[in-house]
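Request: Have a read of the protein record below and say how the chain folds.
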Amino acid sequence: MNILSLFDGISCGIVALERANIKIDNYYASEIDKYAIQISKKNYPNIIQLGDINNWKLWNLPNIDLIIGGSPCQGFSNAGLGLNFNDPRSKLFFNFVDILKYYKPKYFLLENVKMKKEWQDIISEFVEADPIEINSALVSGQDRKRLYWTNIKNIIYPHDRSILPIDILEKEVNKEYYINNMWKTWWNKNKEFSIKKKYSIYCNLAQKAISLLARQYSNYNGNFVFEGIDENGNDIIRKLTPIECERLQTLPDNYTAGISNTQRYKCLGNGWTVDVIAHIFSFLPNEWKFI
């Protein structure tokens, strides 16, 4: 199978294809983020990197069997500015449509965030398919609702694995991840606002984590977990480690190792929950699989 991955990021797509036992002849990837490309090359050196999607007319690729991608969602997301198709990043969706029409693959998969119904319907009209909504909470420790447009048939929801944050935590965590006294003062004043606005991923050990975010709004906002109360009655709070974030996205430990933690968090927040994608690919016909 020849695969073309648009907005490829850290190549979660190829990890999902392997987990679904899909035969891969060539995996072509379009991505411009240098850190994401670095991670992809580290894990999959045979990926054929194509560069900027805006130059797609120069690619001259062979027959493509599957096109996948998650066009930038900042214009649709509640965490963004809500500019919808007027956002220059969200306009890249139309590149996906043009490429889909040009290569006419047997199958396609498009992922994006939950959005206003009017925007969702526009996408459905262009790709000629209605989306299925799947929450990563079924296969992961995070509450991450996403829409998936595809012409792969007869997809059903994944079985609920009942995974919680406590199931993915590292046994030993460096002290640098824990919030110091200055941060605790800020946290106590702002945590309710932060949780409500979802500027942080904040969770205790017995509830799903808020969806991983790529963007960090300040030094204090990021990927936090509440571990309990100390002897003085203070919240015990720390940042999730990059490995824990990889586990929330069902990626292998240290998949994103080799770049700064800041870039690891960003790449993971922009990535896919691999086991959701692998579940969707499992419904491809057996002719495309290793049986």
In short: The helical segments are 12-19, 34-43, 93-103, 117-127, 181-197, 242-248, 261-270, 274-281.
